[in-house]
From TrEMBL:
Residues annotated as catalytic: 156 (proton donor/acceptor)
Lineage: superkingdom: Bacteria
GO biological process: acetate metabolic process; acetyl-CoA biosynthetic process
Catalytic activity annotation: acetate + ATP = acetyl phosphate + ADP
Coiled-coil regions listed: none
CDD domains given in the database record: ASKHA_NBD_AcK_PK (cd24010)
UniProt cross-references to Gene3D superfamilies, sorted A to Z: 3.30.420.40
Record-given protein name: Acetate kinase
Ligand binding (Mg(2+)): 7, 391
Subunit note: Homodimer.
GO terms, molecular function: acetate kinase activity; ATP binding; magnesium ion binding
Length: 404
């Protein structure tokens, strides 16, 4: 079965094509036959396309277009023609899987896309305005270019659908509950993949594990995973809640919002921009939301960069503690995504706070840039894993499950 995966962002898009043979979905992730990245950020009105194949062929080009449909058409053309050709015609593709950020209360698992599903994704754009509209554009672009091919929506919120009400309900008026205002959680595709991968690395049944998965990239969230299900998480009604992130504030005292709204120069739109794009590591450091640049500035004695790192670590430790309380214990702590996979110092200082649990990391193993490994000492009471998240592979798995 050939499965095309589209992971659409507001200013970028990642795509890949998997060829999965046989009647059983492989335990180990396969390398895609073909991968494509599109970036609209460098030149307004132009899309930069980068394509590579498993055999090493590469293509880079820039096209004048803001239309996702036109760009998808060009991407599909590179699948079937030129140096990056891996299939003879688009009809060889059996299914297309899409990452869709918000599924609300209606969609608690992945679904085959219908008109009703599309309408729901559009309706939920009011609470995921930066994500759901572009996810829908990707779906419609495939319709325009591939016709009636089976498409699957894989929701980032679905993995968290089992969170108990005590963890999901905000302590506001009950009318909020009736309006669907609750903790939905995000990064669910990554948390789901990492939980399954952790069980395989440990040689354990996922149904018997208590895990905390730390997805630390530009966006950051934790999930408390018990017996394979998310029972608590840090992102909430929107992806703004919880941990300090690259440019997002994470949780702040709501009284601050009220205070700022009472200032004459603050509006809802300005607050939205401040909290989502001018806070977090970028806001505190004044430099960047990229942890690599923060670490570089710290090495040169930049005190604001050091403060940004210290606040980040404090809040990460605090929320890990909260997840511990939800789980009543811990079998493994997992670090994933760009920061989690690559920043050894962050992992070490985070883990130091949990030595009282008997958690011990091997500092030499931790320094090595390797993934899908256990970096804890043999006698550690809690395993510590670094896992390379494979969201596209998890989307392909969901397509396989629904279509096969």
């Amino acid at each position: 079965m050939k499965i095309l995966v589209l992971n659409a962002g507001s200013s970028s898009q990642k795509s890949c094509l998997y060829d999965i043979a046989g009647d059983t979905f492989p335990e180990e992730p396969l390398k895609p036959l073909w991968e494509a990245k599109v970036d609209w950020t460098h030149h307004q009105g132009f899309a930069e396309i980068e394509v590579k194949t498993a055999t090493g062929a590469k293509l880079e080009e820039e096209i004048a277009s803001n239309s996702r449909s036109e760009v998808v058409a060009r991407m599909l053309d590179t699948l079937c023609n030129g140096s990056t050709k891996v299939i003879n015609e688009p009809s060889e593709i059996n299914a297309v899987g899409h990452r869709v950020v918000h599924g609300g209360e209606d969609y608690r698992e992945s679904v085959v896309i219908t008109e009703d599903v599309k309408q729901a994704i559009a309706r939920l754009a009011t609470i995921a305005p930066a994500h759901n509209p572009v996810n829908l554009e990707g779906i419609e672009a495939i319709e325009q270019n591939l016709g009636t091919i089976t498409q699957v929506a894989v929701f980032d919120t679905a993995f968290h659908a089992q969170i108990p009400d005590a963890a999901a309900i905000y302590p506001g008026p009950y009318e909020w509950v009736e309006q669907g205002i609750r903790r939905y959680g995000f990064h669910g595709i990554s948390h789901q993949y990492c939980a399954q991968r952790a069980a395989r690395i440990l040689g354990r049944d996922l149904a018997g594990l208590r895990l905390i998965t730390c997805h630390l990239g530009n966006g950051c969230s934790l999930a408390a995973v018990k017996n394979g299900y998310s029972i608590d998480t840090t992102m909430g009604f929107t992806p703004l809640d919880g941990l300090m992130m690259g440019s997002r504030s994470g949780a702040v005292d709501p009284g601050i919002i009220i205070h700022l709204l009472r200032q004459s120069d603050y509006s809802a739109d300005k607050l939205d921009n401040v909290l989502n794009k001018a806070s977090g590591l970028r806001g505190i450091s004044g430099i960047s939301g990229d942890m690599r640049q923060i670490r570089q500035e710290i090495s040169q004695g930049n005190s604001r960069a050091q403060l940004a790192f210290d606040v980040y670590v404090h809040r990460l430790r605090s929320y890990i503690g909260a997840m511990l309380a939800s789980l009543f214990g811990l079998d493994a702590l997992i670090f994933t995504a760009g920061v989690g996979e690559n920043d050894a110092v962050l992992r070490e200082v985070t883990c130091e706070a949990f030595e009282f649990l008997g958690l011990q990391i091997d500092k030499e193993k931790n320094k090595h840039k390797s993934v899908d490994v256990d970096i804890s000492t043999p006698d550690s009471a809690v395993r510590v894993l670094v896992i390379h998240t494979e969201e596209d592979w998890e989307i392909a798995r969901e397509c396989w499950r629904l279509v096969k």
